[in-house]
């Protein structure tokens, strides 16, 4: 049995970065760049007006003849003289000789001429070519997260594809003869299977949509065969159930006989103690507890960082928050506790109903409060650490 | 021109909740329940063992004959006598007469009998029928957010469908003759169109995947026709560009002639001042500024809460955080500012490059720092409010 921190280190060490792939910028949200991107163009690609107004050659004069128009999208070869101006709009090409744009609010105009009522400084309202980025300059370094703004910036530079780290393909293998699919009549002694849809939803919250669920009978032969089929095809395998003392052995045996290396088994925590972590080649195997709340807790604490690490993230864990505890709490277990809790802007409340079999508390919680194994009591008003979820 | 707070109120008042729909529990992540859910079964549906061990009738005796086995998924009619026990596993049916389960670690066993070395209290390790929830009791109240844990809980009760508020269908209408699709050669005077893919990505971050993009030429007739087609088919219409003074009028005219009611135009803020908000029937129209950083800012500040409101959320805005400012800041504009910023656990730094045309700062920011319009300066180390993004 190991401590939570050791388990986290072992997972971080063993979860290698995924291979890279080219992907369309439109589909790249939430991926990590695997290459440094250089700009193929100057942005803006030409001198642009920052205002609706009039472009002119800056001078002492206040009166100008309007000899043309430059709308957004136009390219004009108009040549300006010193007493001439061009009607211009935001984003439009600034004619070659002009160096300044006066905004239309600072002008009196008739059909053919303007009088500038408030003279701007030279170069005002003209965005220089390459002001945002110069051709060949770095757009984003490798290992940058692709956000909506990053997608916008890449698109405005005309970039259509980028190289990113792939998302892992995840399999969920459900064991348990007692499990019946929802929608069917429930025979005596059976319960509805819920962990696979719950884990699929949890995976979806971090952008993993390619998930395949498998179900296997509680026996060695079937489990061995299922794993033999699954292991080479997936990057992460989550096994639900079959990991507490009574029936663990044959899941372990099935894993070992399939060449999975055990990296740890059992963590000094509650809920979620009976968990197995191993690997084969680059594939990671998490055998999660069958109890739903334990399973989901260990998803957030262990599977989440493993997936983030494989995707190339540098911050792989759930972000931590610190809040003031509303009531005291005693921890006599000697284990690290992950308690379902509700936090607001300043405080946090530990919820009733922390049983590992019960999901209803988890469903209304917005965080997991961490009580370290060597911390015997938390006092009211003490600052505590929590992990926001949902 | 109105203040930010007024704009937010008008949007909240005018964004009605979407109609409801039945949806499979598996696909319900991130939706808000439109009905109160009652449990169709007791959970657990029978008395369940919480441990691997032996079920027996609690007494003073320490020695018991093992007369049978109850595995998870079994239903046994075994009748126990006072000196008899049944081998049992976690989650398995506890035989009718038994009232207690002793964990296997507290037993010495041979093939046919056990000696209890540490006697548990009566009723230990037996989960009562309906302990988690009793048949007909409330599972979730209406207006609950469906989280991974909620999906797990619904599934374990055998519930396969729930009634939720629909997600809005969103259209993006891009205006601007200067815009060229990425991947093509860039003619003189033109720039690449980026707002539609950026807004699509931003919509994706809040679970809106059904988005359709349209492009229209900068003229009244085309815009009117496009809007006539789009307005009845979508719940939210985002128009990109055509909203600054120079070319606003014909977008406005096209909207008004299509029966869209103007609810406000222009907000006292920077970036993002030139924005139009209106509605027709239940459809909301946001004409966002064409400048990319303004467009994305207004997405987070205004479109985001409108969508959350339509989906039935009670907390509709981005959550607010408070952090200590790393450097002072002067606001001479009299406007509310939304500044791209980077925060960590304690502090926040305002980034360089706040221009409304530039997305590169936005791409590396993790928050928008709010400077209220009537706040002329922020001091170093002052506590400031920010909205986390990405």
From TrEMBL, chains A, B:
Involved pathway(s): Cofactor biosynthesis; molybdopterin biosynthesis
Enzyme superclass (EC): transferase
Transmembrane annotation, as ranges: none
Domain of life: Bacteria
A single cellular component GO annotation: cytosol
UniProt keyword list: Magnesium, Metal-binding, Molybdenum, Molybdenum cofactor biosynthesis, Transferase
Cofactor(s) this protein cannot do without: Mg(2+)
Entry's Gene Ontology BP terms: Mo-molybdopterin cofactor biosynthetic process
Start and end residues of each MoaB/Mog domain: 171-309
E.C. designation(s): 2.10.1.1
Database matches in SMART domains: MoCF_biosynth
One MF annotation (Gene Ontology) recorded for this entry: metal ion binding
A Pfam family this chain is assigned to: MoeA_C
Reaction it catalyzes: adenylyl-molybdopterin + molybdate = Mo-molybdopterin + AMP + H(+)
Coiled-coil boundaries: none
Biological role: Catalyzes the insertion of molybdate into adenylated molybdopterin with the concomitant release of AMP.
NCBIfam families membership: Glp_gephyrin, molyb_syn
Assigned protein family: Belongs to the MoeA family.
PANTHER family reported in the protein's UniProt record: GEPHYRIN, MOLYBDOPTERIN BIOSYNTHESIS PROTEIN
Protein name listed in UniProt: Molybdopterin molybdenumtransferase
Origin species: Flavobacterium pectinovorum
Lineage of producing organism: Bacteria, Pseudomonadati, Bacteroidota, Flavobacteriia, Flavobacteriales
